[in-house]
Amino acid sequence: MKSKRILLILLASFVMLLAACQDSSEETGSNSDTQSEENSGSEQTPENSDSAAPDEQDESSNEPSDETPAQDPSNSADNSDSEESESKKEEYLAKLDEIDQEMTEMMENSTASNTVEMKKEASDRWEAWDDALNEIYDVLEEQLSQEEMDALRIEQRSWIEHRDATAKEASLKYEGGTQENVEYTAVMADVTRERCYELVNEYMK
């Protein structure tokens, strides 16, 4: 009798244990399926992808850059030097025009009534143009190369001889008269005026 009771108890325990194992197995399988579905959904979601779509990559690479290309400093320097040289030339042409207008007005409004006053006016004209010539020459010494300046000095010495000879020849028609010195100085002023314009137009950069 006692052995049958023990057998029934063991049998009941075995059935309960078997049922418990079956429930645990089903729960584990359910969790595994749920996790698998979640992982599968996660892998198929585009938002979780680490790499950008091809279209997005192409658009990104083709977008124009907002950066402004750097300018070549050497070109900027060349442009700056060119503009400065042009303004210097224009500046001196304007100065010469101003002197020319002033001298023209002085002769047109002249009140000289004798040789001394006429010579004074001629001397003033020559001095104004000679000062301008010396100023132009100083600028050219800064702009021209050593070789160009050496050639210009030789040319300038020849010009001085030409100026003096031209003035002397013009004054000979008044040789011995009171107008001789006046004419000599007036021609010196005129020739110097022409030389000022020539140097600026041909040599100043």
Short summary:
With 205 residues, the protein is mainly α. It is 81% helix and 0% strand.
Please tell me how large the radius of gyration is.
Answer: 53 Å
Percent in strands: under 5%
Oligomeric state of the chains?
Answer: single chain
In terms of per-residue confidence, which ranges show pLDDT below 50 for 5 or more consecutive residues?
27-66
Mean pLDDT: 77
Query: Main sheet, how many strands, which sense, barrel?
Result: none
- State the name of the first-level CATH class of the largest domain: Mainly Alpha
| Percent helix | over 70%
How do the SSEs run, as a string of H and E? HHHHHH
If classified by CATH, what would the architecture of the largest domain be?
A: Up-down Bundle
**Total number of domains:** 2
CATH topology of the largest domain: Substrate Binding Domain Of Dnak, Chain:A, Domain 2
Total count of helical runs of at least 4 residues: 6
Total strand segments: 0
Shape: rod-shaped
Give the end-to-end Cα distance, rounded to a whole number of Å: 135 Å
Structural class: mainly alpha
Organism: Cytobacillus gottheilii
InterPro entries: LprI-like_N
Biased composition (Acidic residues): 53-66
Signal peptide: 1-19
